[in-house]
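User: Sequence in, structure out. Go.
Assistant: Echoing your sequence, followed by the structure tokens.
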Amino acid sequence: MNYTKKLGLWTLVMLIFVPTFGFGNIASNAVTLGPAAIPSWLLVALLFFLPLSIMIAELASANKDKEGGLYTWIECSIGPRWAFIGTWSYFVANLFYLQMVFSRIPVMISWTLFGENRFNDANAYPQI
């Protein structure tokens, strides 16, 4: 069998959409703001997601003969030194972001299973 390694359009769209918006952020925003979240997401889509998608498409097309990725994109724009710094900066930023995301998982499971946040310490300290 001959398999080609190509991403479909839907896969590419989701690879851009999910890290940018994040389904968890959409749900949290909808719970916090209610119906007012709809215009805010439309505004974010117009001012952030659309330009980001255009930049990613431009960088991908400019580097179609290369391996791709963040390092390649920065290297073709401003050089290898800044590509190294930018890639490590992205890595370090994600370390803190992933810790924040992973800390939400037990709370989300608690809401799903019990309908409340069982990790809330509000009742642990009596009022004086």
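User: And one key feature?
Assistant: The first helix runs from residue 9 to 21.
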